[in-house]
Every structure is written in C-alpha cells, then in structure tokens.
Design goal:
By secondary structure, this protein is of the alpha/beta class. It is built from 12 helices and 6 strands. It has a 6-stranded mixed beta sheet, sandwiched between helices. The termini are far apart.
C-alpha cells in the first residue's frame, strides 16, 4: 500500500532533514542517537508520518535547533486541525506557479506585516485569546517566505486605492505596512498594482479572490467570504473570474505609478 504525504507535516519534515544534514548526520546516526528507527525518521522527513513529542525532545537536544523544530511541530499540529477548505487552499497555493490576487477590502494576507495582521485578527476574531491571535499572525506573515523558499511563485496583486489609504491600527502600523509593500514591489517575482479610486464600476466589486495557476493542473480560483474561502474549479466560474481580473489589470495603475501612489499615501500619514 502506497503511503500518502501528510500536507500539514511537509514543512516540519523539510526542516528536520535540513537540520540533520547541516550537522552532518545520516539517518542511521540520528536513529542511534534518538533511539528511533532510521525508517521511522525518514517517514517523518518525507511527511509520511507525524512524530510524537518525545521524538521532538530527543531531536531538539541532538540537533540544537533553539526551538525552531518545536515551532514547526506546533505549526503542523495546529494545521492538522484546520478546516478541510483551508488545507485544500494551502496545498493549492504550494503547487501554484502564479498567484494573482484581487483585494478590494484589506491588504492581501500574503503581503501583510505582523502589526497589520494583528489588527485584522483582533478585530475579526474578537473571541480568540491573545495567544491564538499571535499564532495566526505568525502563520500568516511567514507564509510568503515559506512559499518563496519552497518554489517562489510569481505574484501579481491588485489592491484598491482605498485599502492603501485606509488607516488600520496606529500610524506606525500603517507606515510599516506601506513600506513593506514598497519593498515587495521592487522584487523581480512580484508586482503590486493599485486600482485607482476613480476607476469605473467593475466586476471586482463582487469581492476578493485569487487565481492560482500551476504547471501541472488547470487554474483554480479561491473566493473569500466571512467564514473562510472556497476553491472553484468549474471552468465557467474560473474563466469568468480570470476575465474580471483581466479587466482589473487594465484599469489598474502601472507598476511605477502604483509605487508612486503608495509612496504618496505613506507620506500623508500623520
């Protein structure tokens, strides 16, 4: 029987293997040191099996990860309990070669700073504890770095001008967020465009969405709503929203002008 990869444990497995190899240890030598079988550790690294905490304690002591491995383990444990729709979105995101984002309400999650994300989660999840909010902030703000480490997809984000000019949190929070956008827009694999406030009525008024394209599969669209999001694979729905995104791209300011508008909004913050 063919073993299946457990998506929640892929990042943990990669980190475990990286740390082992960085210290010049083979599977057999780590197995001897921890008391766990080499085949078992191999399954942990390939995300075919989820390790228990006792193994983590042994591995941390030997590999000396300063808590890095523990954090990956805790992230994986949390992800295991994520709703099915979220796991599907994350898996699709990790397979995408191109991600196109339309965001008419807030800065897209992949592009958020910690301070901005913290404000969004605190207001949007009023019953969560501070600890739960902080975990969500960490997961969200590390997501772009993780994607870039894994396969570095090309990203094109179109953001409505009111989102750029809206005040989320204190002035320092918004200032940091706009500076972050300016830094990201200078990246070779990312484009951030602003849709001006005076653009005519367009299909994007129906709400935020993302078009995810991979080399292996047909494009999918993630449509966001108040309780999460859903993936659309229906050809007509995908084609329609791709056309909407194309119209948005036509109306959006070009990269240089978008950069200038973000800089202008940054300069107006007081």
């Amino acid at each position: 029987m063919t073993e299946k990869i457990m998506p929640a444990w892929v990042n943990f497995g990669r980190e475990l293997r990286r740390m082992r190899e960085q210290r010049g240890l083979t599977l057999d030598s780590l197995a001897t040191a921890t008391g766990y079988g080499a085949s078992t550790i191999s399954k942990y690294e390939r995300a075919y099996r989820a390790p228990k905490r006792p193994f983590l304690v042994e591995a941390e002591g030997i590999l000396g990860g300063n808590g890095d491995l523990l954090r990956r383990w805790e992230d994986a444990k949390k992800t295991e309990s994520d709703p099915d729709w979220h796991r599907k979105v994350v898996k699709t995101e990790e397979q995408a070669s191109d991600i196109k984002i339309w965001s008419p309400l807030i800065i897209p999650g992949l592009l958020q700073t910690e301070g901005y994300a913290r404000c969004i989660f605190r207001d949007g999840r009023p019953h969560d504890t501070d600890e739960e909010v902080e975990k969500l902030v960490e997961l969200r703000t590390r997501r772009l770095e993780m994607l870039r480490t894994m396969h570095n997809p090309r990203l094109l984000a179109i953001i409505a001008e009111p989102v750029i000019r809206a005040r989320v949190g204190a002035v320092d929070v918004m200032r940091e967020q706009l500076r972050h956008l300016l830094e990201l827009s200078a990246s070779r694999d990312m484009r951030i465009l602003v849709l001006p406030a005076d653009a005519p009525y367009h299909g994007g008024h129906s709400g935020p969405f993302r078009v995810l394209t991979s080399l292996q599969n047909t494009p999918l669209v993630e449509v966001e709503h108040a309780s999460g999001s859903e993936l659309l694979s229906d050809d007509r729905a995908v084609t329609r929203l791709q056309a909407v995104f194309g119209d948005l791209q036509i109306w959006a300011l070009p990269p240089a002008a978008s950069h200038a508008l973000i800089s202008e909004a940054l300069g107006e913050l007081r």
